[in-house]
Amino acid sequence: MPKRTKLGVSAVKHLAWLTRIDLTDKEAKEISKQLTKILNYFSKIDEVDTSGVEPLYHPLEIGKVSRSDEPTPFPADEILKIVPSRKGRYVKAPRIA
Amino acid sequence: MTNIDLRSAKRLVEAIRLGEVSIVDVVEASLNKIKELDKDINAFITINSKKALAAAESLDTKLKRGEKVGALCGLPIAVKDVISTAGLETTCGSKILKGYIPPYDATVVAKLKEAGAVIVGKTNTDEFAMGSTTEFSAFGPTRNPVDKSRVAGGSSGGSGAAVAAGMVPLSLGSDTGGSIRCPAAFCGVVGLKPTYGSVSRYGLISYANSLEQIGPFAANVDDCALLFQCISGWDPMDSTSYRNPPKVESSKICRRVAVPKEFFGEGVEDAVARSVWRGIEALKDGGYVVEEVSLSTLDYALPAYYIIAMAEASSNLARFDGLRYGLSLKSGYRDWNTYFSKCRAKGFGPEVKRRILLGTYVLSAGYYGAYYLKAQKIRNILKTQFQQLFTKYGLIAGPTMPTTPFKIGEKIEDPLLMYMIDINTVPPNLTGHPAISVPVHKEGELPVGLQIIAPYFCEERLFQAAKIVEESLRRQ
């Protein structure tokens, strides 16, 4: 069982990097406290015996859904209008370092 | 026409069809009411006056020509701002989507238009529907029309308050863990979370796909049923929508109601319990058999729900990159990761950040089994227990919310305390069952909702029971 009592500032900073959300040190400290408290509450689920139980990822059984392989019109020009910054039909983005 | 009562959709449709009022009159009355009241309530993020009036005029012309106009016949309706509306800004209550104008309508919005409804505006919500009071909206909290110092509930607080204040007869919300039923209970209106898969989610900006459904708000049960009929049905654009819902046979157990004692656990206010029992007594008087039961797994539904919801949120919200739509930063960050991180830091509010971070944590290697997988197993146990209960009972009932609406700001500083108020609303989201909240408080008291849960696709049964409660309490 992983230890789940504390989610420290460095762990929060690592999560912030993974999720691409820039956090100041002050924010990371505050969030560390809050998330630790929430995680401790979450560990309540340990009390339930789930041996032999399958996980349920979806509430209802829904069969395979497919459609015929025919292209449908796609309003690319309309959609491009909502892009904040673009060059022609390309979205402008910073360089990937 | 200024004295148009907007609280009954059915009566308004009749009046419009009889030619007593025009659709323009009704839509103007709604827009005027919004103008008059919304500066204090903040139910709306965007008001759609110009287009709404144009739509109303064209519907009036259609009526005059004797052309067919759908079941909602010109009724003004408000739509939660997490549901895409073509040509009308859709913000999800977030700065990160400010200025975003969807190029397409959600299926439910297309259905509303087909049914002849007129969208008067987009309603306030906790950012990305993550919250229970609408205080986490980037556009400020919605105030409860019953007492403006109190929260309206959330996350669909704007939609609940707009109906409660009589600004619109109908509205749409979305419900991931109680986000329709909570504001319905807190504002004293009727709200339904439909069976998972009965209403298309195409165009609903995702927070937690396996839990959420779009559903109706109305001032009374009949109107809620009317709106549900207009928005439900299979949609080829949503692979989780049901094509052929199973036919539900009527039987003796339909009128047997189970009341789990866990729904009245620690934290349920006396005033709430009293009102809820009045509602349950009304069911007894209406010929229902009521029995108290125990459903032990209910105590674990809340942590299981939050683990799953956060996990799904962390994945869904990865799409907001500040490049393709909504917020973008002008200052020249030359590196992709820096730009991405700065933009998301600026665009997301505190609750959204917490959920993305924790959702990522519970999905990460080493913790996945202990949190995410475990929670999904508990979900399975809960579903099995609900299904077992539904072999003996036709309905499950209890308080929608453990408390009456509290003061704005009272719980905002403590995220966990805020999550706790969802304790009774999350189970049907985990299991996919339909659930309704119907008001049961006395006039002059703070609103309280009775939650009734039914087997899959038994919305009709919920409306029948809720109507008995509604009529009985109206007579008292």
Gist of the model:
The complex is a heterodimer of chains A (97) and B (476). Chain A is mainly alpha-helical.
Describe this protein's structure.
- The complex is a heterodimer of chains A (97) and B (476).
- Chain A has 97 residues and is mainly alpha-helical.
- Chain A has a domain at 1-46.
- Chain A is 34% helix and 4% strand.
- Chain A has 3 helices and 2 strands; from the N terminus they run αααββ.
- Chain A has helices spanning 9-18, 25-42, 76-80, and strands spanning 86-87, 90-91.
- Chain A has a two-stranded antiparallel sheet.
- In chain A, helix 1 packs across helix 2 (25-42).
- The longest helix of chain A has 18 residues, at 25-42.
- Chain A is flat.
- Chain A starts with 8 loop residues before the first helix and ends in a 6-residue tail after the last strand.
- The model of chain A has no long low-confidence stretch (mean pLDDT 90).
- Chain B is α/β, with parallel strands linked by helices and 476 residues long.
- Chain B has 3 domains: 9-231, Amidase signature (AS) domain (Amidase signature (AS) enzymes, Alpha-Beta Complex), CATH 3.90.1300; 252-298 and 381-437 and 446-475, D-Maltodextrin-Binding Protein, domain 2; 303-369, no CATH class.
- Chain B is 40% helix and 13% strand.
- Chain B is built from 15 helices and 13 strands.
- Chain B has an 11-stranded mixed sheet, with helices on both faces. A two-stranded antiparallel sheet of chain B has the order 4-5.
- In chain B, helix 7 packs antiparallel against helix 15 and helix 9 (298-316) packs across helix 11 (350-363).
- The longest helix of chain B is centred in the C-terminal third of the chain and has 21 residues, at 369-389.
- The radius of gyration of chain B is 21 Å and the shape is globular.
List the helices and strands and how they pair.
The complex is a heterodimer of chains A (97) and B (476).
Chain A: H1 9-18, H2 25-42, H3 76-80, E1 86-87, E2 90-91
Antiparallel strand pairs in A: 1-2
Helix pairs in contact in A: 1-2
Chain B: H1 9-17, H2 23-41, E1 44-47, H3 49-64, E2 76-80, H4 107-114, E3 118-123, E4 143-144, E5 147-151, H5 157-164, E6 170-175, H6 181-187, E7 190-193, E8 213-218, H7 221-231, E9 256-260, H8 270-285, E10 289-293, H9 298-316, H10 336-347, H11 350-363, H12 369-389, E11 395-399, H13 415-420, H14 426-431, E12 435-439, E13 449-453, H15 459-475
Parallel strand pairs in B: 2-3, 2-6, 9-10, 9-11
Antiparallel strand pairs in B: 1-3, 4-5, 6-8, 7-8, 7-12, 11-13, 12-13
Helix pairs in contact in B: 2-3, 5-6, 7-15, 8-15, 9-11, 9-12
